[in-house]
Design a protein that fits this description.
Radius of gyration: 18 Å
Oligomer: single chain
Number of helices: 1
CATH architecture of the largest domain: Sandwich
CATH class of the largest domain: Mainly Beta
Low-confidence stretches: 1-22, 160-166
Strand content: over 45%
Structural class: mainly beta
Helix content: under 10%
Shape: globular
Mean pLDDT: 79
Distance between the termini: 42 Å
Order of helices and strands: EEEEEEEEEEEEEEHEEEEEEE
CATH topology of the largest domain: Chondroitinase Ac, Chain A, domain 3
Length: 238
């Protein structure tokens, strides 16, 4: 049985830091310092810098169980999202998964994917430990990222948010303050999830009211009929 790693890191606190099983929250005016030779473990995502590395608020790291999809391409189920870009990182990123989270992807095909500030995903062929259910990659040059997952090892694979042109679905306005509109001629079912993977709304209406939901990021999954094609959009609620 694979045991979850405990949390080992050096923390420099200026004001309170709140750490949950699936969320790391650093408040304004606070910081987390990971000492050289130490790591921070976030419910299956381990970050081990080669030197001292500081995470300065405001920052929130969350774990989603919604796979990133682009056409017939998909990631494994765990996706880790940062509210603010983690920049200038040098060191090792280790991604844990369970057999049930592989999303029908062979372990031998897994590579690590990091999402940059431009929302594009870049693949890194790391070391897969099939007995320990982990994939890890050591960055010798500085890298910046705001999300982490794993997917197929195809060199031509680029996991990205599907654009309106590719999917014939337009979602607007985005970012939004109060509602979004889905523009498509297809029959569809829409589901809205928060970044913890909780479904917060399901509808077949083209206008979705987001009032009262607070400022946060959602994942909108639109399933079009009759072929049940799923298109995902990242929705920013201001």
């Amino acid at each position: 049985m694979r045991m979850k790693n405990l949390l080992f890191f050096y923390v420099a606190l200026i004001s309170p830091l709140f750490l949950f099983s699936q969320i790391l929250t650093v408040n304004s005016g606070s910081s987390v310092s990971i000492a050289s030779g130490s790591s921070i473990a976030l419910d299956g995502l381990d970050i081990a810098p080669s030197g001292s590395y500081n995470i300065i608020g405001i920052q929130e790291v969350s774990r989603s169980n919604i796979a990133v999809t682009a056409g017939d391409r998909r990631s494994v189920l765990p996706v880790y999202n940062c509210s603010t870009l983690l920049s200038g990182f040098i060191g090792t990123v280790r991604f844990d998964y369970t057999e049930g989270e592989l999303n029908n992807i062979s372990e031998s095909d897994l590579v690590l994917y990091l999402q940059g500030d431009d929302d594009r995903w870049t693949s890194f062929v790391g070391t897969v430990d099939e007995s320990g259910n982990t994939i890890s990659y050591t960055f010798n040059d500085a890298v910046s990222f705001k999300a982490v997952t794993a997917s197929f090892g195809d060199a031509n694979l680029t996991v990205e948010d599907v654009s309106p042109i590719e999917s014939n679905i337009i979602v607007y306005p985005n970012p939004t303050a109060d509602f979004i509109i889905i523009r498509t001629d297809a029959i569809f079912q829409a589901e809205l999830f928060d970044l913890m993977g909780r479904k917060v709304k399901a509808t077949n209406q083209k206008k979705i009211d987001l009032n009262g939901m607070g400022s946060q990021t959602f994942i909108l999954k639109v399933t079009t009929k009759p072929n049940n094609i799923i298109t995902s959009f990242k929705i920013i609620k201001q």
